Fold this sequence. Notes:
Number of strands: 2
Amino acid sequence: xxxxxxxxxxAQAKFQDKYPxxxxxxxxxxxxxxxxxGDFRSRLEAEKMxxxxxxxxxxxxxxTEKINLPKADSE
Length: 75
């Protein structure tokens, strides 16, 4: 989170380099850009990811909102 768009896109790219399978989202609510990560089905899943990311990213917190469900396998 921060007021600079370039910083948000930089954080998003850094995350996607390490975790290309997880979705990322950038949102803007004046005056801050926020990078959101993942579509976790439970708080436990989100907490595990936060612990894994804590050394690489600062200012992490879990938010509750609607998620985009992954596509189901066609098999």
